[in-house]
Design goal:
The protein is α/β, with parallel strands linked by helices. It has ten helices and twelve strands. The strands form two sheets. An eight-stranded mixed sheet has the order 6-7-8-3-9-10-12-11, with helices on both faces. Strands 2-1-4-5 form a four-stranded antiparallel sheet, with helices on one face. Strand 7, helix 6 and strand 8 form a beta-alpha-beta unit. The protein is globular, with a radius of gyration of 20 Å.
Length: 311
Amino acid sequence: MEQKKETLLEIHNLSVSFRMYDHGLEQTNLRVISDLHLTVRPGEIVAVAGSSGSGKSLLASAILGILPSNAVVCGHLHYKGRELTGQLQKELCGKEIALVPQSVAFLDPLMKVGAQADGHYRPKLTEKRRKLFERFHLPGHTEDLYPFQLSGGMARRVLVSAALVTDAELIIADEPTPGMSLDQALEALRMFREMADEGKAVILITHDIDLAFEFADTVAVFYAGTTVETAPASDFKKGPAALRHPYSRALWEALPQNGFRPIPGFQPYAGSLPKGCLFAPRCPYKTEKCGNQIPPVREVRGGEVRCYRAK
């Protein structure tokens, strides 16, 4: 039996709420992530999939400790067996943990992009960064440009280069490929794959899940702020019969190449979550138990799923 690799990042029962004013001066906590689970091991790419508003980017911010001051975080986050406290997050961010941010606004508008991608390292990593720019087909003069002089796709390639130039053991790539051509997106994913094959770990947050299936080892499916299924990427290639959760199967069937079949209804808003299973209002297989109790995470056919009816 194959022995599992050691865990690099382990997340259990993660919840994220935002303290807000509701009526007048009355404060309330708006929970946007609930009881989320995720495990990341060295040498793996874990793709995080799900619709907009499912909590994917908030997970990245929670890991890095860059949530706004009104955020309340509960649960367990451990990096190499150590609790990921605020102090440890500051020590690791940009060194052992690197982020490819979703927004190109993360680039400093007053600084040339070459110097930004080099980072604050001593000695400078300029030659390594130039090779990355070359692999991404960024012209040599790109390093002397300011962010406003870049196209959206060029800016994203600069952001990816800035993360890959580090010696980080964990890369969190939050929607790294929009604005890139197919060839450029494939090159970025190949580079993430190379890093994983060298023993690094990658969390790939993406809407391009059909591309992610080709490069990821594991796919974690998010819905309404929680993990509903974690499965080998190979299961998503096999088709819906290999998947465990009704939402994972619906996500697969909604892809253009698989018929583009949407499911009725909408993902629930964070302020009005259903009592039981979060997917129950849209699920064709729901029972009375599904509507009243939140299913626990359990192992099914080599994956993890949050569903009473999964087999």
